[in-house]
Design brief:
Layout lengths: L8 H31 L55 E3 L4 E4 L2 E4 L7 E5 L6 E11 L3 E7 L8 E6 L5 E7 L5 E8 L7 E8 L3 E6 L2 E8 L6 E6 L3 E11 L5 E2 L12 E2 L4 E4 L2 E4 L7 E9 L2 E8 L10 E8 L9 E6 L4 E7 L5 E8 L7 E9 L2 E6 L2 E8 L5 E8 L3 E9 L5
Antiparallel strand pairs: 1-4, 2-3, 3-14, 4-13, 5-10, 5-14, 6-7, 6-13, 7-8, 8-9, 10-11, 11-12, 14-15, 16-19, 17-18, 18-29, 19-28, 20-25, 20-29, 21-22, 21-28, 22-23, 23-24, 25-26, 26-27
Length: about 425
């Protein structure tokens, strides 16, 4: 019988394994679990975003101070371009609700569904090189934020997002890929209170973006995955109010993109003539001149514009007319604008355009069916570089060429009195 000496080497191997090998195995597992806990609502386990703490040179993220909600008076965007603010009868296409329970309350967007993640509302127009700003208030829960550079307004796939985390520990940022999987790019420790209002801005530049909270820089020059696109607001597991949404050029002034502006005629402005504004009824009373203007304070491209025009107060011998002036390069003069209006108290129409010196050149005229009550309905459908004219919902002239494909919109009166009611503008496209 052979007697074998007891060998202690296995014990040494176990000690070596516990002291050196096991930590190398456990540490990555712990890091993956921690990362999953932080972003578990946006990425499946095993495909985690690379999340990094905000860079040391960034300002320390103290608990931000609540800012008061302020009214916004829009000004012109660069090159005279203005975002059309929603209005009664034409604004249904301005904000699109992708998921969630969205409603409009006093010019605020409210997302009320407190279950589920990534409820998004998107604005109708894409942008590049801009600032997107909004004020948000958490009614219940903490999970509000913004999305930007969305590649489609129908989905938040392929977009960037900045929002507060629903457990009220951090504000984080990153991007969604084509499968709507979120990839975190960073976070900063922040805690906010329900009921407080906070201003959140993103400066989306050519290749990077900056984040501001209550006008305090949180992050600078973070890389962009998508260089331009649509903007929107978002809410996860919380009810959030969004107010005073603005988009403006980098270094410029803001333009409101509020969800509703109470009334299409809320911002009408008399340019020439004697105009009386009484709710939804507008009357031009000056009888001694012609082509008096009032601006609707609207700038648009493709649209359908309509109104009902009443000539009953005009004397029978007067050549009284009324209609639209549109595609004005400037909001307060006729230079290079298009015109369509009735003549002879609504019995015929003419159309044409003004030149650089505001001199009118007629391009056509014809008699139209006339209602003996002195009330006519006028509508134009503007698509690209053409427009059509409808009287009492009947097409009378089609495919008239335009000087430009966008511009300011107003009403025009030839002598008076002329009364306009039921002014409506639809951005859904001409029909």
């Amino acid at each position: 019988m052979t007697i074998q000496k007891f060998d202690s080497e296995p014990a040494n191997r176990r000690k070596y394994f516990i002291s050196y090998i096991l930590p190398l195995i456990l540490i990555p597992i712990v890091l993956v679990v921690f990362n999953w806990l932080l972003f578990r609502n946006h990425s499946p386990l095993g495909d985690q975003p690379q999340v990094q703490q905000a860079q040391p040179e960034q300002p320390a993220a103290a608990i931000p101070t609540s800012v008061p909600v302020q009214a916004f008076n829009g000004t012109a965007l660069e090159n005279g371009r203005r975002l059309v603010v929603d209005g009664e009868g034409f604004g249904t296409g301005d904000w699109q609700f992708i998921t969630g329970d969205w409603r409009v309350e006093e010019n605020r967007l409210v997302q009320a569904q407190r279950e589920g993640f990534d409820h998004v509302a998107s604005y109708r127009e894409p942008f590049s090189n801009y600032v997107f700003s909004t004020q948000l208030r958490h009614v219940q829960g903490i999970g509000g934020g913004i999305v930007f550079n969305m590649q489609s307004r129908d989905t938040f796939a392929q977009s960037h997002m900045i929002r507060f985390k629903e457990d009220n520990t951090v504000m984080f940022w990153g991007h969604f890929d084509e499968n709507s999987v979120f990839n975190g790019q960073g976070f900063v420790e922040i805690s906010v209170n329900e009921g407080d209002t906070h201003k959140l801005d993103v400066h989306a530049k050519e290749t990077t973006y900056d984040i501001y909270l209550n006008d305090q820089l949180i992050l600078a020059d973070n890389p962009l995955i998508y260089s331009q696109g649509y903007v929107g607001v978002t809410s996860s597991v919380s009810e959030v109010q969004f107010d005073n949404a603005q988009v403006y050029p980098l270094g410029g002034e803001g333009i409101g993109i509020a969800p509703v502006a109470n009334d299409l005629l809320e911002n009408v402005e008399a340019i020439s003539g004697d105009w009386v504004f009484d709710g939804g009824v507008i009357t031009q009373t000056n009888m001694d001149g012609f082509d008096f203007l009032t601006g609707l304070n609207l700038f648009a491209q493709n649209y359908s514009l309509s109104t009902q025009i009443e000539f009953t107060q005009a004397a029978a011998e007067q050549d009284v007319g009324g209609g639209f002036i549109f595609h004005m390069p400037d909001r307060n003069n006729k230079r290079n604008a298009q015109l369509i209006r009735f003549m002879n108290g609504g019995r015929s129409i003419l159309w044409g355009r003004y030149d650089e010196n505001e001199l009118f050149s007629g391009e056509g005229a014809l008699d139209v069916p006339y209602n003996e009550d002195g009330i006519q309905n006028l509508r134009i459908n503007v698509i690209g570089d053409k427009y059509d004219i409808f009287v009492n919902d009947e097409l009378v002239v089609g495919d008239i060429s335009l000087n430009a494909n966008e511009g300011w919109i107003g009403l025009v009166s030839f002598s008076g009195p002329v009364t306009f009611t039921d002014v409506n503008l639809s951005l859904e496209g001409a029909n």
